[in-house]
User: What shape does this take?
Amino acid sequence: MPRKIAAGNWKMNGTRAALTQLEGIAATHADCDVLVCPPFTLIGPAVDTAQNRVMIGAQDCHTQTNGAHTGDVSAAMVKDLGASHVIVGHSERRSDHGETNEMVMAKAQAVLTAGMVPVICVGETLTEREAGETLAVVETQVAGSVPHDATVVIAYEPVWAIGTGLTPTIDQIAQVHDALRAQVIAMIPGGDIPLLYGGSVKATNATEIFAVGNVNGALVGGASLKADDFAPIIAALSAS
Ligand code: PGA
Assistant: This one.
């Protein structure tokens, strides 16, 4: 069985005051892995607060280790702060920063080279879903942006479900995750790749989402910002 992971993506939210929420998350009992990805500015303080009770990750990194890339941050730099994971290819990066599958692949490889785990995001837009292209889009993204490495994590995040309160039906989640599982078994033989669902996961829908066979956890945005919201999701995954 792949590892179960409850991952929080804080996006561009949080100053040092938010470390009290991280303390609450770290104090939550968990029978699963818990990962919190704060903004770059909080990674160092978050590692200190977490004290290895939860894992800390970044939300992006550059493809290069160092060099003339003003404003960018490398995988080696976040590794140096104590990060264990880096989210790459989030749909907000793909749309806001024009990240292609090739760039996401290069970032994921940079994360692996630095000795961390890439959490690689894929997912269709509403237009693509309505055109019946969901599986083709997701499979193309996985083929183009996931290195053939047994340690990677993949997050399926339908773009239209992110931050909207909308979620796919349980059957729709199952269909994509079953297809993903078949694809990664073929791509990475022997790899027990965790497949996370992301997009408007909250306490009220977590249990039914985690009951889906090939769902091994969640990548949670809004509901990971407050310990009181994230704790029931961690509990639901622990109980699944
Ligand atoms: P959300 O975000 O939980 O706020 O929908 C999920 C994500 O973007 O990872």
The first strand starts at residue 5 and ends at 9. Residues 5-239 form a domain with the TIM Barrel fold (CATH 3.20.20.70). The mean pLDDT is 97. Strands lie at 5-9, 33-37, 55-58, 85-88, 117-122, 153-156, 195-198, 217-220.
